[in-house]
Design goal:
Chain lengths: ~110, ~220
């Protein structure tokens, strides 16, 4: 908990940034960027989250203990995402990708 | 009351619990505890987000088609409403830190009005339209086409995630009613404002969930 009183100016600036980022993410969605649409949407969402956490939730003014604990939680979430997608995203990959021609080495049977 | 306990009570203000050294330590513990709770909530929503990602990648076209049934206008409007309510909540916490009773009440009411507005827009313009268009699974769902099953799965995610988010908002509004009552009774001053600060953390967390739900459900993959 911060006994640090944040100036109103900071809150209003953060609010304006969040609104601008919202407008940006909506407008970008109507432009065809292919796979980059998803990347832009996620990058903007993460930026907005960081703004809210840093200023509205006072993490910038919090103790080191609080910061470390939040970081640990976020890393745990990353593990959940990374391992889940690493698993489901790499299922059913053929041993020999298409167009690589005939296998020259017979698949090993002793494993 | 014994002499010893009377002397002890005189040493610290009534809102400082017996087992804390000073108000800073009490506040620090309260915030840390709230963050711990929010981290469990992050893991709870995180499981949903991970599942959503897995199915979105697997049934990309169906999910893309599903998201095109949603209204970006109302989604964006609600994002703005919720960000506005985060601003007023932050200002309510600031007023509490400064011990300004009337300002706390004003900003809490503004936050609640915006919160109710969010749920109102969601119910009145989005969920009811979804019902009439037959987009709610198990409630007259009818979408034609090759991707119908995947679209249905998308809407299962959509209603579960936005419903869970709305439930969190309703709980937040309930907590704010209690805060309003406490503020009206003059329970907060510049020394004691932990309940307002902690409710603020919760409300901002709910805002963050929506900050991710909006692009994930409405925008991802583009709307062109």
């Amino acid at each position: 908990m911060s006994t640090h009183v944040v100036p109103v100016r900071v809150y209003v600036t953060v609010f304006v940034c969040l609104m601008v980022l919202t407008a940006t993410t909506v407008s970008v969605a109507y432009v065809n960027l292919g796979a980059f649409n998803t990347l832009v949407a996620l990058t903007i969402a993460v930026s907005k989250m960081l703004l809210v956490v840093t200023f509205f939730m006072h993490v910038r003014y919090s103790s080191a203990l609080t910061k470390v604990m939040i970081a640990a939680g976020v890393i745990w979430l990353m593990l959940l995402m990374a391992f889940t997608l690493a698993d489901t995203g790499t299922r059913n990959i053929p041993l020999q990708p298409e167009g690589w021609g005939e296998a020259t080495v017979a698949p090993s049977t002793n494993r | 009351m014994t002499e010893a306990s009377a002397a002890h009570t005189a040493e610290h203000p009534p809102y400082l619990a017996h087992h804390f050294t000073d108000i800073e330590q009490q506040n620090e513990s309260g915030t840390l505890g709230m963050w711990l709770f929010l981290l469990t909530e992050i893991m709870f929503f995180g499981g949903l987000f991970a599942t959503y990602a897995v199915y979105r990648l697997k049934y990309f076209e169906g999910f893309h088609e599903g998201s095109h049934h949603l209204s970006v206008q109302f989604g964006a409007l609600n994002t703005a409403v919720l960000i506005g309510s985060s601003l007023t909540m932050a200002l309510a916490v600031r007023s509490a830190q400064l011990g300004r009773r009337k300002a706390i009440i004003l900003f809490l009411i503004l936050t609640m009005v915006l919160g109710v507005l969010f749920i109102g827009i969601k119910l009145n313009f989005e969920w009811s339209a979804d019902y009439h268009e037959g987009l709610i699974p198990w409630m007259g769902f009818h979408v034609e086409g090759a991707n119908a099953a995947a679209v249905r799965l998308f809407f299962c995610f959509y209603f579960f995630m936005t419903g869970l988010h709305a439930l969190h908002m309703v709980i937040g509004l309930g907590i704010m009613c209690v805060l309003l009552r406490m503020a009206a009774k003059g329970r907060f001053d510049s020394g004691y404002f932990a309940p307002v600060e902690i409710t603020g953390l919760y409300w901002h967390f709910v805002d963050i969930i929506w900050i991710f739900l909006f692009p994930l459900l409405y925008l991802m993959g583009g709307r062109y």
